[in-house]
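To: structure desk
From: M.T.
Subject: fold request, one chain
Message: Could you run this one when you get a chance? Sequence is below, nothing fancy, just the single chain.
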Amino acid sequence: MLKILHKCVFIAAACGSMLTAHAHTQNPDGTVICSPTENIAVCFFAGAVAQGDHSVKPVMDALTDALVLPLTELRTKRYANYTMVPNQWTFEEVLAGTYTSGSRMPNGNIVGPGSEGFMEAVKQPEAIPVLKKALADMVNAAREYGSYGGQATGGIEDLSNYEYVVQNEILTPFYDEQLRAYPVKPAPVGKKAPLQLKGNREALRYKTNLGRAWNEATEPNFAGHYFAVDSIGCGTGCRVTFVIEWNTGRIFKVPYNAYFHSERTSRLLILFDAPYCTADGPPILYVFDGAKFREIKHDKCKNHGPIRADRAE
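Reply: Done. Structure tokens follow.
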């Protein structure tokens, strides 16, 4: 593993600028003055500047763990140091080695890793978006300035796990909001009807696998009394998606082929090639009215996570 040799060359996207957009009092010298009552982790990142003098992998791992691990486990985790020797630095040491703190309390005390209560503050809800922003900056920088296995990423072979962590909390509330916007009250359903294949060219093309999936269906999983199925392959990395009405066996082809998320209490179908924003585009949303699908356009991926605005449009 190679460390980054030139400060702010490979993580320039995160260097030299404040990590958050929180409104804080600022001194003429640029230091951030934080309220005594605010979250000190949020305060720290408000004035933190990434120095970029070692691999981004330890800090990406540390920020990821801060988002997904309980506090007790986070305290015990150890990360590679600036020379990439594994299992050397604590979470706080990684942050201290990556960022210069520009945040101060009103009495002049520096705010940052090692401050009393810092670890507890990291796990508070208000710190989540700040940690995600810091991680997103590192993911963006790794994508922009180096290959996955190269010097900039410190040997990271795949950024998808980091991308997912960055965007899961961004997209999940949005999904929940959209699902609730198109509610359906599930009603009791009768016996599952035979598939209505006659005259449906798309369904006939996949009738064997479609029939198998229908036979295995035990209850509706979409829009009250429909069953959505994507277990039918159409080539490498391709899945054909159909919706079947439970009581009639009528079959509807979803316009886009991908994995999906559906709920019985909603008419919204969420389709994605990956469970996060990708360079190929954002997840696709369709609303079903019982006869056809209508796409719901959104720009939720724009400026979020590792996808820059010019790639999300």
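Reply (cont.): The chain has two domains: 25-158, 178-312. Let me know if you need anything else for the meeting.
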